[in-house]
Structure formats: C-alpha cells, structure tokens
C-alpha cells in the first residue's frame, strides 16, 4: 500500500502539472471563450495557423497565456474539493483551445541535454506550452517553447501526452507525471498508477496496512498467497478511503526471504482491469493496464463529503495470467481466502472477480 507515504504529495504535484499543461488563455464559459479565442490552430479551431507568440519584455517563467490557463484549471479543480462539484466540460474546453503545432511550424528543437545548463548559458525569459500532433487521432504530445534572453524560441518535448478522447494526461515512459508514479485524468479528477513507478522499490510491508489509519486511509484488504515454480507469491486487493479520495489497488508480489513482513514487487506483469462502484454509481473504469500494481483514486470534496467506508465500495475486474500453473495456484488460494463478499471465476487464464459491498 505504497501511496501511504506519497498520496498527498502526488495529488499536489499532479494538480500543478495539469495546470502547467494547458497553454491557452481561455475562460470556462463559451461566451468568454468566443471573446478570447485567437486564430491559433486548436482542436476547436482546426483551420487556424500556429504562430509562435511574442514574449513580453521582462517575462519570467510562464507566458501570460500559459499562466492564465493554469489559473483556470486550478480554480476548477479547487472548486471540486471545496464544493464537491466540478465542471469537467470546462476542463475539456480549455484543452480544446490549446494551440496545436506541426513540426514545420515549430522553431528549431533544443540541442541541450540539461535545461538548467541551457538557462545558465543562454538565459531564460519564459516558457510557453503547446500541443504537437502525433500519428494517433486525438492524442497530442505536450511541448515547451523556451525563450532565451534574446527572445529566441526553442522547443523540447516533455515526455507527456494528452489524450483528448479520454481526458488522460500521462507520462510516455510509464513513470507517472514528472516521475511521481501517477497519471491524471483532470476532467474526472482521477489518479491512476504508472507501471514504472518508483514505488516499486518499496515493495509491500504489512506495516503499511497497520499504520494506514494514522494517515486517514481506511482500507479493506484481501491477500492471496500461493506457491509457484518454487517461489512464494501474493496477489493483494485493497479498496477504501484514501485521505481525499475513494479507490482501490491490486498488487503482485514475491516473498523476500530476508524478512517475514516484507514482499518485493514482482517482475511479472499481468493485464489487470478494475472498476470501483458505490452502490450503482461507477467511480471509475480505466480499462486494462499491463502492470505489477494497479490503482485508481477518485478525488472528491474531503471537507464536506461524508466518509465512504471500504465496506460501502464494490470492486470488480479481471486478471489475465500467462501460465496455466500460476493461474491454478492462484485459483486454489482464492478459493481458500476469498472471504464472504468476494466471488470469482477462472475461465482459461482469465480470472474475473467481484468484491461486493458488505451488507
């Protein structure tokens, strides 16, 4: 349960990254958007032409357009936490007006390995963020235009992509936004784990669960230990209340022989899908992820919304094994340890489960 130490920090960092990823100055109502819209090409204005914006004299850090959009997005997310309400469509509209550039319209790409080194050598007057087209429909790479002390612009990719089809903002090298271990869906206020997250190094320790209430994290968990190919394995499930969110996790671990309470993150990656419900309300469903640890956390209003206890949540999904022997060993453990509210089936290599809310 690795987010014990990182969950709050991940939320703050993710919100800052979402703010930084929207470079156009557009308000959150159609009327204001119509007034503020420029001729820049965007998802809402595909006939426009991308032009490199001028940088005001003396500008430091963010271009005014980028700073305005950051403010709009952060205020919208802040409303979600403050009132329990959020305008998902407003968030999508802001991104839909973000300028889109083709390679032919961009200035020369950067030729430096370290941004700090470049800033010290050439100066740094400002940063302007935009989108770059990819070969996938509706998916854009986030790029940064850096202005040096002479006002000249160079651009660099940020290892970030925005999928306008789903609303996900994610890292392209599977380590989460800026390496924090989580990707973010800003229209849905949803965090999900990244397969290459640094939390792999923490593995799993039973003390994580024991001390979670001290972090205002209240969870139900089920563990399914089994032996396969001479090694001790465990697949563990969690669902519950995570500080300012509700969510769930599934992790795959192998026993560390050096300690009775510690398990290593497994090198085995399996296809895992997961959906979380409260009653008939679907909190999230982000499809299938190939990973050793999957988790999703739906943020809400932690000041006014009553605590949703773990027993009120329902978790469903699938795990697809790659070896019949591993599937059989897990299935035997599942039947012995599933408890009163977990049901499941094994069809070939696909395990389907339904962890029902307690009555």
Walk me through what this model shows:
There is one protein chain. The chain has 359 residues and is α+β, with helices and mostly antiparallel strands. The protein folds into 2 domains: 2-191, no CATH class; 203-355, no CATH class. The protein has helices at 7-20, 30-36, 64-83, 88-96, 115-122, 206-211, 324-337, and strands spanning 100-101, 126-133, 139-147, 153-163, 168-171, 182-185, 190-193, 204-205, 217-228, 231-242, 245-255, 262-265, 270-278, 281-291, 293-299, 313-320, 342-347, 350-355. Strands 1, 2, 3, 4, 5, 6, 7, 8, 9, 10, 11, 12 and 15 form a 13-stranded mixed sheet that branches. The chain has a 5-stranded antiparallel sheet with strand order 14-13-16-18-17, with helices on one face. Helix 1 packs across helix 3. The longest helix has 20 residues, at 64-83. The protein is elongated. The two termini are 25 Å apart. Mean pLDDT is 80; it is low at 1-28.
What is this structure's SSE topology?
Elements (H helix, E strand, L loop, with lengths): L6 H14 L9 H7 L27 H20 L4 H9 L3 E2 L13 H8 L3 E8 L5 E9 L5 E11 L4 E4 L10 E4 L4 E4 L10 E2 H6 L5 E12 L2 E12 L2 E11 L6 E4 L4 E9 L2 E11 L1 E7 L13 E8 L3 H14 L4 E6 L2 E6 L4
Task: Give me the Rg, rounded.
Answer: 23 Å
Distance between the termini: 25 Å
Number of H- or I-type helical stretches: 7
Major β-sheet annotation:
13 strands, mixed
What are the defining features of this structure?
2 domains; single chain; elongated; 22% helix; 359 residues; 36% strand; 13-stranded mixed beta sheet; 5-stranded antiparallel beta sheet; disordered N terminus; alpha+beta
